[in-house]
Design brief:
Length: about 260
């Protein structure tokens, strides 16, 4: 039988991005998966910029794409560099992504998927077991899985602080959509910021480092969102009271959920 994913939702109340820097490179298997996920996402985003370049130049771009060398408005994530080469007279392209914090590289050539070498370690998602026990096989059947994030109970957030809901997306269902709405109920102008990001991007944000988000709203009272995720890993839905005045705000999650398919 196919095993179903485990999606863990945890509510966390934290200070805003003011924690001290630790300066240590993340070398765990979870970090490696996050780096690979970031590189794959950047390679897919590169495809859009390449098509725009082709439209104007009758051929694809070859060269380096980085924060200091954007391509048609596209810049890869922090620490990521893309090297692009062309074949067939400039009518096809191959891109390789590197990340400053890992030796792993990812390569992308349409119409195939992005492939990383070495592939990210997925052992973290294995069924926990003792040293002498046998693997446990899930008896659950396949199919889509929906998990609710939080509840409709109002949540109070102090000024400059945030509330976050953590969830893990595990194989075999790694194509997920996080959707719902956050509504400000009371407190000052009732406006808050909503973000969806990986766990490691969240740690960067908490430490006042640049952080890549899958979704980031402007301060608003009503914030609907529908965010597609296509990589396994740990994510957070974050609601931030960015106000620096000493005003707490109450918010409500409405129909917030994670829908995952294989």
């Amino acid at each position: 039988m196919k095993s179903c994913p485990t999606i863990l939702i945890t509510l966390v109340s934290m200070l805003g991005p003011t924690a001290s820097l630790n300066g240590q490179a993340r070398t765990s298997a979870a970090a490696e998966r996050d780096y690979a996920s970031t590189m794959k996402a950047d390679l897919r985003r590169l495809a859009t910029a390449e098509e725009a370049y082709f439209s104007d130049n009758n051929g694809y771009y070859a060269g380096i794409v980085a924060a200091s060398q954007p391509l048609y408005g596209f810049s890869p994530s922090a620490n990521v560099t893309l090297k692009v080469s062309t074949v067939d007279g400039g009518h096809q392209w191959i891109a390789t992504a590197t990340h400053a914090l890992t030796p792993t590289t990812c390569t992308y050539q349409l119409p195939g998927p992005a492939v990383c070498s070495p592939p990210p370690d997925t052992s973290m998602f294995a069924t926990p077991r003792g040293a002498d026990s046998q693997p446990v096989v899930s008896t659950e059947t396949g199919g889509p899985k929906t998990t609710t994030i939080g509840s409709a109970k109002p949540v109070r957030i102090r000024a400059t602080r945030s509330q976050s809901w953590q969830f893990d997306v595990r194989p075999p269902r790694t194509r997920c959509v996080v959707s719902g709405q956050v509504v400000g109920l009371s407190g000052g102008d009732k406006k808050v910021v909503v973000m969806v990001m990986t766990e490691f991007a969240y740690q960067d944000w908490m430490n006042s480092r640049p952080a890549r988000t899958y979704f980031e709203s402007a301060p608003r009272i009503e914030i609907p969102f529908d965010v597609r995720l296509e990589e396994e890993g740990r994510y957070r839905l974050v609601v931030w009271n960015q106000s620096r005045t000493p005003t707490s705000k109450s918010i409500q999650l409405q129909e917030t959920k994670v829908d995952c398919t294989q």
